[in-house]
Amino acid sequence: MKSRVKALRVVRHGLVFSGLVAVLMGTTSPLSHAQDVTSREGIALQNQILGLKQTLSQMQASQGEGGALPPPSATPATGGGAANGDLVSQLLERVNTLEQQQRDMRGEIDQLTNDLQQKTAALSKQMADSQFAAQAGAGAAAGAAPAAATAADTAAAQPTTPDGLLSAGKAALQKRDYDTAHDNAEAALKNAKGAFRVDAQFLLAQSLAGQKQYRQSAVAYYDAYRQSPKSGRAPDALLGVTASLLALGDKKSACEALGKLNKEFPSPAPRVAHAAETFGRKGNCNG
Question: How far is CA 111 from each of CA 78, 107, 117, 152, 239, rounded to the nearest angstrom?
Answer without folding.
Answer: 49, 6, 10, 61, 92
